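Notes, p. 3: input format for complexes.
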Amino acid sequence: DDDDDNDVGVKLETRTKTKRPPLYKVMILNDDYTPMEFVVHVLERFFSLTHDQSVDIMMAVHKKGLAVVGVFSHEIAETKVAQVMDLAARHQHPLQCTMEKE
Ligand code: TYC
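Output follows (102 residues plus L-tyrosinamide):
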């Protein structure tokens, strides 16, 4: 502002803000009717968990009510929830799967 050029100039640097997309926790909820083996199968099939990891998470849900089974972009999380809800409905199990912004 001291150089009497009427403040005309060229901005030489711009901020490169790389905003990461929000992530979503996908959770499964306990209920009294869905068979344990079905929940284990769902976790193996849709969340690329090993059998042992799936058993551990299923038992955590059975005891505590719910657990996070994975964290994904919005689109992937929506797909996982839909896949679980669809398979559970087709087998007439009341299993619930939901997503929540992290
Ligand atoms: N509580 C169920 C039973 O005793 C098992 C179960 C576990 C159901 C986890 C849902 O998300 C769930 N058969």
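The mean pLDDT is 92.
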